[in-house]
Amino acid sequence: MTMLKYQVRSSSRPTAYGSPSSSTHDTTLTSRSNSLASLNSVDSANSEGDWGTLRVYTSNVKACTAYKTIRVSTQCTTKSVIETILSKFKISCKDTNLFELWMEVTTKATTGVVRTLLRLDYTARPLQLQRCHPANMSRFILHMTSEGTLVRVHDHNISPQSNYKSLLLAEETTCREAIDILLSMNRKEPEGDYALFLTAPEGEAQIPSEVSLVPIAAINSKLAEMNGKLLVRKHCRENNLERVEAFLLNLFASQQADTNESQK
């Protein structure tokens, strides 16, 4: 039988979880074995085949709830589990990349009960992992991280009565994902013909859809001094990142030239 191999690294955990009477270790699950032979042997003995249920504790996300039970397949990823629960709670206007799924594994040792917390990678398969442990010896916890960045996006082209929206985004959230959040906040269906633009009096540059938005927003805070802003609107073609970089370089060079001229 091929054993699952875990690669782990230290990570902070939700402080609300853990027992004073038990030893707790915090790790992050980042990869799995390529072979799932040991999992398949468990699945074949299970009457539900490739489907099962997960109980996910959700009080850190929605205070009035204790847990949510969902039915998933062994192929369902952590990302899908998070999206499913947020959808059931009708939390569609928040960045899913700010949410983490933790797995608490309980083992018995001579010194007592040991509880180990694993932060699951978005590509991990929670039901497969649950089946690696005895019943009632593991549980899942949904947690929202506090490591978000506020990004202001002007959205009057989506909703005329609105000026801008402030989005709390994770570092890795792409422009495409940010646009989907904006559309959800404005109660509009996701569309592929919207794009984000860096705009300034000197011109504008379209941001590629797969680029992470938070680093661009950091540049945008500098652009604000030049009447620049992030704007969402429909687009005709996709820009590449080199064009955005060229636009910014020209913009900052122009601003520096104006500053030098005024100091003469």
From TrEMBL:
GO terms for biological process: positive regulation of epidermal growth factor receptor signaling pathway; positive regulation of fibroblast growth factor receptor signaling pathway; signal transduction. SUPFAM superfamilies: Ubiquitin-like. Residues 8-30 have a biased composition (Polar residues). Residues 1-30 are annotated as: Disordered. Residues 52-147, 151-237 form the Ras-associating domain. It comes from the Eukaryota. This is Ras-associating domain-containing protein.
